[in-house]
Amino acid sequence: GDSVTQMEGPVTLSEEAFLTINCTYTATGYPSLFWYVQYPGEGLQLLLKATKADDKGSNKGFEATYRKETTSFHLEKGSVQVSDSAVYFCAPLGSARQLTFGSGTQLTVLP
Amino acid sequence: ETGVTQSPTHLIKTRGQQVTLRCSSQSGHNTVSWYQQALGQGPQFIFQYYREEENGRGNFPPRFSGLQFPNYSSELNVNALELDDSALYLCASSGGTATEAFFGQGTRLTVV
């Protein structure tokens, strides 16, 4: 079945630092890829998506590029803010039309 | 356009009891998926409903069951609750031409 490997957390950064959260996946075919974010006590919010190879998803300063050759979808942001503190999940949408999540990466941004 | 709403937000049940969780899908969406998220873990797929029929199921026992109604809202039922069923239950709706799923805020179930 599909699987996701995410960068181990927790990750702690100072405000305005550069962020990278690595994500690699295993899935049949060419799945759509998503990053979701979860703030404490809340559900998941869609952060960005990419539906085919070399697509770049972007939203709120976050970016991720669909790399078919390396089956990766790393999340980046050039300058993080305290308000970005949350848990981030990478998830492919496989042929069975279900999302597969890893364990997530906890990000804490310090002022 | 209304988002995905779930009810209740929190509840506490006793081991062995039964529980029903509810989800209203986003307007225009005909597919609802349910996920279980244990503390500190990523969500795990329970099952999906498409146009009132089950359309895929994860590795969960039959005591987890569901329904989807003609208006595409959905219920998740869990019988014979166990302590390990304590988790955040998330509903996601999708449909139309969009590939993405939108999640509700979740129902926090505690089994004591």
Description:
The complex is a heterodimer of chains A (111) and B (112). Chain A has 111 residues and is mainly β. Chain A is 0% helix and 49% strand. Chain A is built from no helices and eleven strands. The radius of gyration of chain A is 13 Å and the shape is globular. Chain A starts with a strand and ends with a strand. In chain B, the strands form two sheets. In chain B, strands 2, 4, 5, 6, 9, 10 and 11 form a seven-stranded mixed sheet that branches. Chain B has a four-stranded antiparallel sheet with strand order 1-3-8-7, with no helix packed on it. Chain B is built from no helices and eleven strands. The termini of chain B are far apart. The chains are: A mainly beta (111), B mainly beta (112). The A-B interface holds A 4, 32, 34, 36, 42-46, 49, 51, 89, 93, 96-104 and B 6, 31, 33, 35, 40-45, 48, 55-56, 58, 88, 90, 92, 99-106.
Descriptive labels:
heterodimer, A: 111 residues, mainly beta, 5-stranded mixed β-sheet, 4-stranded antiparallel β-sheet, globular, B: 112 residues, 7-stranded mixed β-sheet, 51% strand
Chain pair forming the biggest interface = A-B, 22 and 25 residues
Helix content of chain A: under 10%
Radius of gyration of chain A from the CA trace?
Answer: 13 Å
The SSE order of chain A reads EEEEEEEEEEE
Which percent band covers the strand fraction of chain B? over 45%
Tell me the number of helical segments of chain B per DSSP (H or I, 4 or more residues long): 0
